[in-house]
């Protein structure tokens, strides 16, 4: 069942989303060669605590960290670690903020130091795909319109869309209905209606979309060793269009 959110509930989620956006803005200043993702994770944990929020991922299905920190060929659910970031790394940081019982979810990609054109191009295409998907998140459209917008953009550039992880409804729980696929057919799938709140979070690989899970039981990485990139926002559907609850000013 899809839980439709009332305007006052969306306002609560917007507060969580604003805080999450601010965390990403802070991370942007901190990410650099020599810094470890465990240090970044500790920063996030403390920042949220200081602002009266909690990291919802910590303790979720036994997950131990405030953030997921996935590097290069890691697609998602990377564990923060003591290893120092190095020049040229492509880092994805994903987190869910809980503020007064309402959640927001946003992942962002970070270039560490000076990165290759391959990394820059993949980051650009993935962010574009997210916003093309968001633009389809309108009353009367269907979820397949979102997936199609994302898939057609990145496949035209020779990239692929990860199939095994999808966007999701969100509210008081991390994962609610509906599932939001990042590939699909226009005009197919669940009809989008006012008051839905869901994430759009395309994971885009430079190579093919096959993945494998590390022996830690969590971390997904590309089978072909190619780079993977992700951007994610939490979106509320209003009668006037998509409302990005985790938007950082300036994107
Ligand atoms: N942020 C993830 C998502 O986008 C969900 C959390 S997975 C976790 O769906 F277990 F690592 F927390
Ligand atoms: Co997420």
Q: Which keywords apply here?
A:
alpha+beta; Creatine Amidinohydrolase; globular; 15 strands; binds cobalt (II) ion; three-stranded antiparallel sheet
Chart the SSEs and their pairings.
Layout: H1 7-30, H2 37-50, E1 54-55, E2 68-71, E3 74-76, E4 90-99, E5 102-111, H3 117-135, H4 143-156, E6 160-161, E7 167-169, E8 176-180, E9 197-200, E10 203-205, E11 211-213, E12 220-222, E13 228-230, E14 233-238, E15 241-244
Antiparallel strand pairs: 1-4, 2-4, 3-12, 4-5, 6-10, 7-8, 9-14, 10-13, 11-12, 14-15
Helix pairs in contact: 1-2, 3-4
The protein binds 2-amino-4-trifluoromethylsulfanyl-butyric acid and cobalt (II) ion.
The stretches of 5 or more residues where confidence is low (pLDDT under 50) are none
Elements, N to C (H/E): HHEEEEEHHEEEEEEEEEE
- Helical coverage, percent range: 25-40%
Bound molecules: 2-amino-4-trifluoromethylsulfanyl-butyric acid, cobalt (II) ion
Number of strands: 15
The radius of gyration over CA amounts to 17 Å
Overall pLDDT level: 98
At CATH level 3, the topology is Creatine Amidinohydrolase
User: Under the CATH scheme, which class?
Assistant: Alpha Beta
Report the CATH architecture.
Alpha-Beta Complex
End-to-end distance: 32 Å
> Helical segment tally?
4
SSE-based structural type: alpha+beta
In CATH, what is the homologous superfamily?
A: Creatinase/methionine aminopeptidase superfamily
Give the domain tally: 1
**What is the 3D form?**
globular
The major beta sheet can be summarized as:
4 strands, antiparallel
Provide the β-strand percentage band: 25-35%
């Amino acid at each position: 069942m899809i839980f439709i959110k009332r305007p006052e509930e969306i306002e609560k989620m917007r507060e969580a989303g604003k805080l999450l956006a601010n965390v990403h803005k802070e991370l942007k200043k901190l990410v650099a060669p020599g810094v470890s993702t465990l240090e970044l994770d500790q920063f996030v944990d403390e920042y949220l605590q200081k602002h009266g929020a909690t990291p919802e991922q910590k303790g979720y299905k036994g997950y131990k960290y405030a953030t997921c920190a996935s590097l290069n060929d890691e697609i998602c659910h990377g564990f923060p670690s003591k290893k120092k970031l190095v020049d040229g790394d492509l880092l994805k940081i994903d987190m869910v903020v809980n503020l007064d019982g309402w959640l927001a979810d946003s992942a962002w990609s970070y270039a560490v130091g000076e990165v290759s054109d391959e990394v820059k191009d993949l980051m650009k295409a993935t962010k574009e795909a997210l916003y093309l998907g968001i633009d389809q998140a309108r009353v009367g459209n269907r979820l397949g319109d979102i997936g199609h917008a994302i898939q057609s953009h990145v496949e035209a550039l020779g990239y692929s869309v990860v199939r095994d992880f999808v966007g999701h409804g969100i509210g008081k729980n991390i994962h609610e209905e509906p599932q939001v696929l990042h590939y699909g057919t226009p005009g197919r799938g669940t009809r989008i209606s006012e008051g839905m709140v869901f994430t759009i979070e395309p994971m885009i690989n430079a190579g093919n979309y096959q993945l494998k899970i590390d022996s830690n039981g969590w971390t997904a990485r590309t089978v072909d060793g190619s780079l993977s990139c992700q951007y994610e926002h939490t979106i509320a559907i209003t009668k006037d269009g998509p409302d990005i609850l985790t938007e950082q000013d300036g994107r």
